[in-house]
From TrEMBL, chain A:
The gene is acot18. InterPro entries: AB_hydrolase_fold, Acyl-CoA_thioEstase_long-chain, BAAT_C, Thio_Ohase/aa_AcTrfase, Thio_Ohase/BAAT_N. Residues 62-193 form the Acyl-CoA thioester hydrolase/bile acid-CoA amino acid N-acetyltransferase domain. One of its GO terms (biological process) is fatty acid metabolic process. SUPFAM superfamilies: alpha/beta-Hydrolases. The active site is at S282 (charge relay system), D374 (charge relay system), H409 (charge relay system). One of its GO terms (molecular function) is fatty acyl-CoA hydrolase activity. Belongs to the C/M/P thioester hydrolase family. This is Acyl-CoA thioesterase 18. Residues 253-464 form the BAAT/Acyl-CoA thioester hydrolase C-terminal domain.
Automatic annotation (TrEMBL), chain B:
PANTHER family: ACYL-COA THIOESTERASE 17-RELATED, ACYL-COENZYME A THIOESTERASE-RELATED. One of its GO terms (biological process) is acyl-CoA metabolic process. SUPFAM superfamilies: alpha/beta-Hydrolases (SSF53474). GO terms for molecular function: fatty acyl-CoA hydrolase activity. Residues 28-159 form the Acyl-CoA thioester hydrolase/bile acid-CoA amino acid N-acetyltransferase domain. This is Acyl-CoA thioesterase 17. The active site is at C248, D340, H375. Residues 222-430 form the BAAT/Acyl-CoA thioester hydrolase C-terminal domain. It comes from the Eukaryota. Belongs to the C/M/P thioester hydrolase family. It comes from Danio rerio (Zebrafish).
Length: 472, 438
């Protein structure tokens, strides 16, 4: 519901401003609230006005946009700049240096950025190379918690090749684009049932749809955006909350918690019972391996495990698992920046099967997605060991492994930035640290884009049609 | 709105895929509708469904046959029947009409521009023309159509007795200003201004005909001049890059002000479905009293719809009864439909051209005349209304007003004229030498 408040200013009338995101500002404070300096646009002095277009202006987070600048001078040096204010109120920016062609046009999908936060022909560089503006707090991570509203990104064109001082420089042109996790018609449903907590996202239409149980990692909480995006692609996806010490006692979260969650999803009237999948990242992958190998209830048609490992104690409650993990804290290192490197904890991969999930028991197709520079889990080594185990057990043909050189641990849906190290609260130690995830920005961005495409195709193949390799 | 039936697709090995790109677009933006994974040469019906703010349901549909790959591409393929025919990329929107059983003479207008128009697009097996809510779907999706682009700001204007809504483009500006005037239906209509702001113009939708809020004896030339100045003096508006846009009675105001006012001196004007034969040189009360005197010329057709067009015919030869358009000093674009049954706009345009030739300012005039278009030429892809319910002011009488026009030519007129209006504004308000492309 739109709430309109009337506030009086110093003059006799306060005019109320509302934009399509329903922010309410007083007219007289627009300078304070716009992020750019209130200077006269250079373009009005010229006879031709640079035109900046971003298509679509409202897109999905994993959708490419076309950015074109026209009506520049030929061979004009310009800087294309993106600016975003996160839900935490931090500012993030990215920029690329371009030279217009003989027609005065810059086409980001075709032209090369000669410098900035990204280089080369990078259609989506303005998003995946976003980084906190100078002076920001350190080790930040950009995540959208409220998926009902879009990410709002300001895109601007500046004269010349700038690398700083954007807020004090006048723009040639500017526009605003929105990036949405939820496509039109997607429904968000709170799940609070049988002690299970989560959020279900349903695609538009009467259904029924394949179901995906979506598990994040040791950071805990309830992270909705990946499920929202999966629903936008035709999957009823449930983001499961399983690690929130304030809401769920870790001693109570064990195999039956995940089995309950799976069944709640499977039994939903709009979900197809026999078209189910599990998707996990990090610790969520470990849970996925465990359930797929041992549960008599959880029998998905396929699984995807991102940055995971099978070297995890099984059949215990979360409390017990974390107690086990604590025993290996001596293998946790710290680098010169005091960032925590956890990858050594499960190395060397034990040969004793009792210490690993028996992936030879898995009966459905499994896709592993790993980064070659994962500093948090030894996911590449784990994948190699899993392959060996599955070869021995005779189910190797079910396995697909995608390994991305120089990608880090946090392989997420595309076009959101890469984070090499971010603030993290170690649940088991209740300690604030900076966790090293690894990866280099450009290869990580590539990994996110390519893996997401392949994950969606994998889901389509196993959940929508068995014989046809469905295109995205 | 659709029966919860099991989608046929889950039984077949093929899963029809329906995509609408962009899934969130502006109202005047084209979308690409593509269906894939059908059988080759399969007969399907593409259907759109929308529930208006008034809770009525509107629908449109086209009959297609997939190609040898099982694909339908709406921008390229022909609809063989339905509410539109032929290769019509946007037919699912501009041919929307109330579903069978609806109240008659409805008009589809978005009053709340902060939210999008939500359209359900579905694919059905076979060539259907009814019973959509009971038939089983092959695929469905939802698309949103917005009047406000991201970053556009909406500002309530209530200043010096003037009422309106200002829409500002994103960024720090400043921008050209457009004063946006609707017609005799009254009230405050925001969507065209919202769309103009989405295209880079600070546009103010002016409320001037709302008898409960604004006394008609007090709305005269000074009201419009005050409104123009409020817009012009806004810190984000460029004083010397102003325009006035009017439809119907709003055009009459535009012509009158531009010809006579010493305050309103825009860089250009656009008048849609207007006439110079109704000078708005007195307060609204008196102008409408004058108009009432012409009511004898109102006709009624066999459906009991009111035909208003003859009230100003014949165009008077006495200059005192017309706006002296020879005095206009800025470029003027007229947009008219030949099947306008509400005002004699085509005849008025011919007379204006004559007057301007005589006065020596003919070079300022551009006239766009659309065959078989009606009176309500609005931004594109919203439906055509040949006749709708109307509340005659000061008569407190509900009638059905005949606007005229045929659906397909009217849709073309809306699309083409809007493109040209935006180009006209860009040419005169953004850059003088470059004929800006859309």
């Amino acid at each position: 519901m739109l709430k309109i408040e009337r506030r009086r200013t110093g003059r006799d009338h306060g005019n109320i401003v509302t934009d399509s995101n329903q922010f309410i500002e007083e007219r007289n404070v627009y300078y304070r609230t716009t992020m750019l300096a209130p200077v006269r646009t250079v373009s009005t002095a010229n006879r031709t006005s640079p035109l900046l277009t971003v298509q679509p202006r409202r897109g999905l987070v994993d959708e490419k946009f076309q950015i074109v600048i026209t009506n520049l001078l030929p061979n004009q040096e310009v800087t294309l700049h993106s600016l975003h204010q996160s839900e935490d109120k931090d500012f993030w920016e990215a920029f690329g240096h371009y030279i217009s062609d003989e027609h005065g046009t810059v086409t980001v999908a075709k032209d090369e950025s000669l410098g900035g936060t990204y280089e080369g022909t990078e259609q989506m560089g303005l998003l995946w190379s976003l980084r906190p503006v100078p002076g920001s707090r350190s080790a930040l991570r950009l995540r959208k918690t409220n998926v009902l509203t879009p990410m709002v990104v300001n895109i601007s064109v500046y004269n010349g090749h700038l690398s700083q001082g954007f807020s004090k420089t006048s723009v040639l042109a500017t526009t605003v684009t929105e990036r949405w996790y939820m496509a039109p018609g997607v429904q968000r449903v709170n799940i609070r049932e049988n002690g299970v907590r989560g959020t279900l996202f349903l695609p538009p239409g009467p259904g029924p749809y394949p179901g995906v149980l979506d598990l994040w990692g040791g950071g805990g909480g309830l992270v909705e955006y990946r499920s929202a995006l999966l629903a936008s692609h035709g999957f009823a996806s449930m983001a499961l909350e399983y690690l929130s010490p304030d809401e769920l006692r870790t001693a109570d979260v064990d195999v039956s918690y995940f089995e309950n969650a799976y069944q709640i999803l499977q039994n939903h009237p709009k979900v197809q019972k026999n078209k189910m999948a599990m998707l996990g990242l990090s610790f969520g992958s470990a849970i996925t391996f465990s359930m797929a190998a041992y549960s008599t209830i959880i029998k998905p048609q396929c699984c995807v495990c991102i940055s995971g490992s099978h070297v995890v104690p099984v059949d215990k409650s979360l409390f017990e698992v974390f107690e086990e993990i604590k025993k290996n804290m001596d293998k946790v290192h710290v680098n010169e920046d005091n960032h925590v490197i956890q990858r050594g904890m499960i190395l060397p991969i034990p040969s004793d099967p009792a210490q690993k999930i028996d992936v030879g028991r898995i009966k459905c197709p499994v896709m592993l997605v790993n980064g070659g520079d994962d500093q948090n889990w030894a996911s590449v080594e784990s994948a190699q060991d899993m392959e060996m185990m599955m070869e021995k057990a005779g189910n190797r043909h079910l396995l697909t492994v995608l390994t991305y050189p120089d990608a880090g641990h946090l392989i997420e849906p595309p076009y959101t930035p890469h984070f090499r190290a971010t603030n993290f609260i170690l649940q088991e130690m209740k300690e604030k640290i900076v966790m090293l995830w690894g990866g280099q920005t450009k290869p990580h961005a590539y990994a996110q884009e390519d893996s997401w495409e392949k994950i969606l195709a994998f889901f389509h193949q196993h959940l929508y049609s068995s014989n046809i390799r469905a295109k995205l | 709105m659709l029966a919860p039936v099991r989608a046929v697709s889950t039984e077949s090995r093929r899963c029809p895929l329906l995509t609408v790109q962009p899934c969130r677009g502006l109202m005047d933006e084209k979308f690409q509708v593509v269906i894939k994974n059908l059988l080759p040469n399969q007969e399907v019906t593409l259907h759109s469904l929308h529930q208006s703010e008034d809770k009525d349901f509107w629908e449109a549909f086209g009959h297609y046959i997939s190609d040898e790959h099982g694909t339908v591409t709406v921008a390229k393929d022909e609809s063989l029947g339905g509410t539109y025919e032929g290769t019509e990329q946007m037919g699912l929107l501009w041919s929307l009409r109330p579903v069978p059983g609806s109240r008659p003479a409805l008009r589809l207008r978005k009053m709340n521009v902060l939210t999008p128009m939500v359209i359900n697009i579905s694919v059905y097996n076979g060539h259907l023309s009814q019973g959509f809510s009971q038939a089983s779907l092959l695929a469905t999706t939802v698309t949103e159509r917005w009047y406000m682009a991201p970053g556009v700001k909406r500002v309530n204007i209530k200043e010096k007795g003037v009422l309106g809504t200002l829409f500002l483009p994103p960024g720090s500006g400043p921008y050209p200003g457009v004063l946006d005037l609707w017609g005799g239906g009254g009230g405050l209509i925001e969507y065209r201004s919202a769309l103009l702001a989405s295209h880079g113009f600070a546009s103010m939708a002016l409320e001037y005909l709302s008898p409960e809020k604004l006394k008609m004896t007090e709305v005269d030339g000074t009201y419009f001049e005050k409104a123009y100045q409020i817009l012009q003096n806004h810190p984000l508006v460029q004083k010397d890059k102003m325009a006035v846009l009017g439809l119907c009675f709003g055009s009459a105001i535009t012509l009158t002000m531009t010809a006579y006012s010493r305050v309103i001196k825009p860089q250009c004007c656009v008048c849609i479905s207007g006439s110079h034969a109704i000078p708005v040189d007195k307060c609204l009360f008196e102008v409408f009293e004058d108009i009432k005197k012409l009511n004898g010329k109102i006709q009624v057709n066999e459906d009991n719809h009111l035909i208003h067009r003859n009230t100003i015919l014949p165009i008077p030869s006495d200059p005192a009864l017309k706006v002296d358009v020879g005095r206009i000093k800025c470029p003027l674009l007229l947009v008219n439909g030949t099947d306008d049954q509400n005002w004699a706009t085509v005849e008025s345009a011919e007379d204006m051209e004559m007057m301007m030739k005589k006065a020596g300012n003919r070079q300022l005039l551009t006239v766009l005349t659309y065959p078989d278009a009606g009176h309500l030429i609005e931004p594109p892809y919203t439906p055509h209304f040949r006749a709708t319910n109307f509340l005659l002011h000061k008569m407190n009488e509900k009638v059905v007003m005949l606007w005229g026009g045929q659906t397909k030519p009217h849709a073309y007129a809306q699309e083409d004229s809007w493109k040209k209006i935006l180009a006209f504004f860009r040419e005169h308000l953004y850059g003088s030498s470059v004929k800006a492309k859309l």
